[in-house]
Amino acid sequence: MKTETIKRVVVRGANWVGDSAITIPALRELRSLLPRAHITLATRPGPAGLFTDADFIDDLIISESSGWGSLRRQIVSLRRGNFDLAVIFPNSFQTALVAALARVPFRLGYAAQGRGFLLTHSQPQPEWRDSRHEVYYYVNIIAAVGCLLHGNSRALDHEPDYAIVVSPERRAAAREQLASLGVRSDRALVAICPGSVNSRAKRWPADRYAELGSRMAEELGSEVMLIGSPDERDVSFEVARQMQTKPIIATGSTDLAQTTAILSCVDLLITNDTGPAHIASALRRPTLVIFGPTNPLTTRPFSSTGELIRQPPVCAPCMLRDCPIDHRCMTAISPDEVFQRASRMLQRSYRVDQLLGVR
């Protein structure tokens, strides 16, 4: 495998929004490694909006990942792309099978789920996977590409570039959308994401979010907006029902590209360990993440603007999607504890934005 022969690259992206945000430094590293190559990101519809303004890829292939019909369409798309190299981020057997059946000459990813024979360059799982942020897990794959092309790689030797960019035009459109929802520009805007699509165990209780949101509105005079995907409408409506001061509900009414642009305008995001946590912190917006069953070493917000609040019991992190006992990792965190931390973060960020003339 030589640099001059790698003209077209397809990257099979991560499946979830948060994981997709975490792969951004690896994608930037790949662009740096192959500046003249045409890089296509193959992803599911959900995460696609993250890459609206991305300058490190050239185009997208968007497809669902389940069912034989989808499998066939993915294979056909990759064959038509005439790709020289497939970089496969997910560890699933199917993603490697698609690249192999599409006859992509070079196929690189981790040796997992018995798929090593489908890859031309399978990589061992790093020993540090459970103790180092997942940003490095994906950058490590690109480091392997660099070693194959040049005999060495420095991809893991410098701070990964985690930033998500929103164009001025999209940011202006987001402000117009916020105004149409009734958001006042003379107040601090606090977004709350009380849901979690792939894990009920990650959810801080709705009644506590309701108490927190009410205090943010009543005691700090903030605009409170609930966000999330269509699958999280139920929990947002439950939070809104219990709040003393009714919030603005944007849950399910924006696609991911619009949500990303809106998050670039907020003064604070309070959320469970979900995709928006990674997006807002990558946008350099203050982000407070309520952590329970997941591992903060590997999935915390990578940006310095992201902060955690947790009260881990001995069973955490368990990584389970449903708590088999009493959800003590989340119920141990009180609304007052979150409110006090959020208040400090909000006041600090609002003051800085005023000094910079952002508001």
Structural commentary:
There is one protein chain. The longest helix has 22 residues, at 335-356. 39% of the residues lie in helices and 14% in strands. Helix 11 (296-299) links the parallel strand 11 and strand 12 (306-309). The chain has 359 residues and is an alpha/beta fold. The mean pLDDT is 94.
Biggest sheet details:
6 strands, parallel
Summed up, the helix count is: 13
Uncertain runs are: none
Our estimate of the beta-strand percent is: 5-15%
Mean pLDDT: 94
Measure the end-to-end span. 50 Å
| Helix percentage range | 25-40%
Strand order of the largest sheet: 3-2-1-4-5-6
Main structural class: alpha/beta
Whole-angstrom Rg: 21 Å
Features of the shown structure:
single chain, 359 residues, alpha/beta, six-stranded parallel β-sheet, 13 helices, 12 strands, globular
Task: Show the helix and strand layout.
Blueprint: E1 8-12, H1 17-22, H2 24-33, E2 38-43, E3 59-62, H3 68-80, E4 85-88, H4 93-101, E5 106-110, E6 121-123, H5 134-150, H6 168-181, E7 189-193, H7 206-220, E8 223-226, H8 233-242, E9 248-249, H9 256-263, E10 268-272, H10 275-282, E11 287-290, H11 296-299, E12 306-309, H12 328-331, H13 335-356
Parallel strand pairs: 1-2, 1-4, 2-3, 4-5, 5-6, 7-8, 7-10, 8-9, 10-11, 11-12
Helix pairs in contact: 2-5, 3-4, 6-9, 7-8, 7-13
